[in-house]
Amino acid sequence: MKIMDGHCDALTKLYVNPKLDFEKEDQELDVSYPRLKHAGVKVQCFAIYLSDSIQQPTFDHILQMVDIFHRKIVSHSGIRFIQNVQDWHEVEAGDQIGAILTLEGVDALAGNLTHLRILYHLGVRSIGLTWNYANWAADGVMEPRKGGFTRKGKLMLRELETMGIIADVSHLSTAAFWELVEGYNKPFIASHSNAQKICPHPRNLSDDQIKAIIQCQGQIGLTFVPYFVDSVNLAVSIPGLLKHIDHVCSLGGERQIGFGSDFDGIEQWIKGLRHAGQYENLIEALCKNYNETQVEAFLFGNWRNFMLTNLPK
Ligand SMILES: [Zn+2]
């Protein structure tokens, strides 16, 4: 079965530790070529995320990560960079794994919309507006003042819409989420978030937020971060994740469900989902609970529909 994963932080690990090898099965890398291949991951999103350890993130840091993406990931003969619908179709028809480049947090763009456009030229196709805290554009969900977008942030949103870069609301504050719903006229995604109703964490989506994503025909990447799956049990297992699927379905979002693992961005894992090579455990659990059409849609088909509609032609 084909799989698409809407979010991982392997690039950050490769940036922090240049010795890690994407081409080999490396215990320290949840997402590596052998693991993706073993699991049947057909399309993987790679986020440029400048970790907290970088005191003053600059555009140069972003460029260094774009360089790593090219040298260490896309350079592999089994990987193909997806920048448009045509690339997607070619990946689907062939043996290669597709890689989509995304940005998590616009901090390092420092309000410069030229930098934003350069990222588009470099192939970045989705942008998460914030990480957990405030930046020049908007507040993140853990920022105590709970603000929305700045004036410059709203200009950036308009630019994303014009260029056709997909807006990603995972990590965004609630106020900014609703401003985006008002001011952004294209479908948007939450690449790695779960349902608050099942696990009341601020990083998860409220029912109203899930409904807004369904309304705009966006996409939700349900995530494997244990404390976003279950707030009660310490040992989180795959059935806990399925509760989020059932809940989003109950709100009418069956066609909006995908996965966004957050592999390589986490230090705790769901039992049975320790790394990308273990997707087979998720597939097995899905097949016990849903019919084949649904399982295929959750793993790949829903993301596929979204991307074919929202990637540049
Ligand atoms: Zn994240």
UniProtKB/TrEMBL annotation:
The keyword Hydrolase applies. The keyword Nucleus does not apply. GO terms for molecular function: dipeptidase activity. It comes from the Bacteria. Keywords: Dipeptidase, Hydrolase, Protease. Its EC number is 3.4.13.19. It is an enzyme of class 3 (hydrolase). PANTHER family: DIPEPTIDASE (PTHR10443:SF12), MICROSOMAL DIPEPTIDASE (PTHR10443). This is Dipeptidase. It comes from Paenibacillus violae.
